[in-house]
Amino acid sequence: MPKISSSLLAVGLIWMGLTAGSSLYPAQIYQSGSQKVRRVVEELSANAQAGGTSPRTYRLSQVEINAYLLDQLRQQEKNAVENISILLGEGTFRTLITIDPDRLQMGGNAAAGRLLGALLEGSLALEIKGRILVSDGSGKYQIQQIRFNGMELPIALVTELLISLGRSQDPPFDPTSSFSMPFGIQSIVVSGGQVVIET
Predict the structure, then answer these.
(1) DSSP string, 96-164
(2) Residue-wise pLDDT tens digits, 89-105
(3) Domain residue ranges in the chain
């Protein structure tokens, strides 16, 4: 269960974004940022396993989250996501994702697979503007706008693409459905380049 919970938190942060292979941040910043997030995840996990009920607050910066998620992305061999970068705003996040369409798992939807295969050659650029809503230990991603290679897409097509991306994660998940927050997390607030997590 702890691995699944850690993976759910990592996947949640992945949808909020990361900067993979960015030259903007030196290696030491990535290393220390990744270590900080790892410590927070370990503490959240330990508190949840011990049945801790005292509320705690954790603050993580955009750079720290990006560093941690870069490490997580590098550990997954069969991942359709090649690169993701995030900008955290007031209550929203904007994520830029580069995807390898050859690694997308389309499930039983052969028509969508043929359509995407015909449309896509090389890497695919996806820009997602959205927010994460967390209440009473339940979370949901609310997508506000999606652009594919600069062109705004209809939500139905985007939903299929996001579900396919979710299937390629470890463990697989459906990013369009509500989910139980791991580790007893009650609230997540995105504001001014940081994420505030409360248990």
Answers:
(1) EEEE-GGG---TT-HHHHHHHHHH--S-EEEEEEEEEEEETTEEEEEEEEEEETTEE--HHHHHHHHHH
(2) 899 988 878 887 777 66
(3) 2-198
